[in-house]
Design a protein that fits this description.
Strands 1, 2, 3, 4, 5, 6, 7, 8 and 9 form a 9-stranded mixed sheet that branches. The protein is an alpha/beta fold and 291 residues long. Helix 9 crosses helix 11, helix 9 packs across helix 12 and helix 12 packs antiparallel against helix 13.
Length: 291
């Protein structure tokens, strides 16, 4: 059993922190910017909540974090009430937020100065993956830090793997989002084509999902896409645009060409303009089915 704090109780962090306590048997203290959410978590799972990231991190072996973006990370890590101010020597900070590789390297360097470990560990698998402890976790960091953190990560991971040095986890998550953007657009176009060709779409999916076109998106999102229903589940368009923005910015630095990613990002901008900021990313279908 380890003493663990979890910062950020959104749709991903809330169940992840719960698994650490209920499944992993760890001593868990949570922090959330909205105290009522932290109180709700304690009522549901037990454990403790703290009023500041510093208080949550004090005495902990591991500080796990899953917030919104680079600015959110900095707001809970730095300053007099930030997590760094409360972490003990030898503790490890694990950042599950999807943020920039630049920030990951910054946090790693700052952690090292303070005698702390750091692992950037963005996740894939969506809300369902978090709820069912079936996340893919792509990690960057020093081998010793990853090895210490892995038993904790395994509580809610289907697979947790170290890809390389600090920042490698975030870069791998960028690859993940680049691939998903193209997959979802292709699935939307295929479903729309089948619908307009008056095919039995369920039968179509039952066949092609057993062949080379199969994907997680197809298995888990085709029905909602076909029905043009995108509320109340999955990964929000606002967050996908944030992630794709990170991908496109990184591509400017490394020279990678991302023409499809850039195009799909603009399609998501159109979804936002239609009021779909919190719709699931499969809402690309909306642009084809509602023309």
């Amino acid at each position: 059993m380890a003493k663990v704090s979890f910062l950020g109780l959104g749709v991903m962090g809330y169940p992840m922190a719960g698994h650490l306590l209920k499944k992993g048997g760890h001593d868990v203290t949570v922090y959330n910017r909205t105290p009522a959410k932290a109180a709700q978590w304690v009522k549901e799972y037990g454990g403790k909540s703290a009023a500041t990231p510093k208080a949550a991190a004090e005495g902990c072996d591991f500080v796990m974090m899953c917030v919104g973006n680079d600015d959110d990370v900095r707001s809970v890590i730095y300053g007099d009430t930030g997590a760094f101010a409360g972490m003990k020597k030898g503790a490890i900070l694990v950042d599950h937020t999807t943020d920039s590789a630049i920030l990951a390297r910054e946090l790693s360097a700052e952690a090292s100065k303070r005698g702390l470990g750091f692992v950037d560990a963005p996740v894939s698998g969506g809300q369902a993956g978090a709820q069912n402890a079936q996340l893919g976790i792509m990690c960057g960091g020093e081998p010793a830090d990853f090895d210490k953190a892995k038993p904790v990560l395994d509580v809610y991971a289907k697979m947790a793997a170290r890809i390389g040095a600090p920042g490698a986890g975030q870069l791998t998550k960028m690859v993940n989002q680049i691939v998903i953007a193209g997959l979802v657009q292709g699935l939307a176009e295929g479903l729309n084509f089948a619908k307009r060709a008056h095919l039995d779409v369920e039968k179509v999916i039952s066949v092609i999902s057993k062949g080379a076109a199969q994907s997680w998106q197809m298995e888990n999102r085709w029905k909602q896409m076909y029905e043009v229903k995108f509320d109340g589940f999955g990964f929000a368009v606002d967050w996908m645009r944030k992630d794709l923005g990170i991908c496109l910015e990184e591509a400017k630095k490394n020279g990678a060409r991302l023409p499809v990613t850039a195009l799909v990002d603009q399609f998501y901008a159109q979804i936002q303009a239609r009021g779909g900021r919190r719709w699931d990313t499969s809402s690309l279908m909306h642009l084809l089915a509602k023309d």
